[in-house]
Design a protein that fits this description.
single chain; PH-domain like; YcxB family protein; membrane
Length: 170
């Protein structure tokens, strides 16, 4: 058995959500679609504006082309900033006492027990859909959109990784 104690912060939850969007097919497709479709709409608008008004096409197309290039270059940064902002808003508006705060995670032969001030959840290893990690966190996905978040700053990362690989059969 391994027991780890850690404090889960708002930053950890935001990091998970950004990681999830960056690494999910839906998140990547959404970013790709929004990044490329909007500039095409800008250029189409410029073309139609030049047809239906007296404004010459060259200045319109050059202005909207510059706008489109700026959009393609900077939209990903805005996209992830927007996700971060939305997650922070949701955390502030809802009751998240069991999410943010102190956690005691026990990893045993039968599964995981996560204890917080609000209660305890017990999950069998078979319920863990995938194990992912980034620079600062481990993510134990228990569904397509939620995971147990373990910040590496609070634990011995190699020991936790080895222990998880011992129990997980993904």
């Amino acid at each position: 058995m391994m027991e780890i104690r850690y404090e889960l912060t708002e930053e950890d939850v935001v990091a998970f959500n950004v990681y999830h969007v960056k690494n999910s097919n839906i998140g990547r497709n959404s970013l790709r679609w929004q990044r490329l479709a909007s500039p095409l709409i800008f250029l189409l608008f410029a073309y139609l504006l030049s047809i239906f008004t007296e404004i010459p096409a060259a200045p319109l197309l050059s202005t909207f082309t510059i706008t489109a290039v700026i959009w393609v270059l900077f939209y990903p940064k805005y996209f992830y900033w927007h996700i971060t902002r939305q997650v922070r808003k949701m955390l502030k508006e809802g009751k998240n006492e069991g999410l943010i705060g102190e956690h005691v995670l026990k990893m045993q032969k039968k599964g995981i027990t996560d204890s917080t001030q609000n209660g305890e959840t017990i999950v069998n290893w078979e319920a863990i859909k995938s194990f992912k990690e980034d620079i600062g966190h481990f993510y134990l996905y228990n569904s397509a959109i939620s995971a147990y978040i373990i910040p590496k700053r609070e634990v011995n990362a190699d020991a936790v990784r080895n222990h998880l690989k011992k129990w997980l059969t993904l």
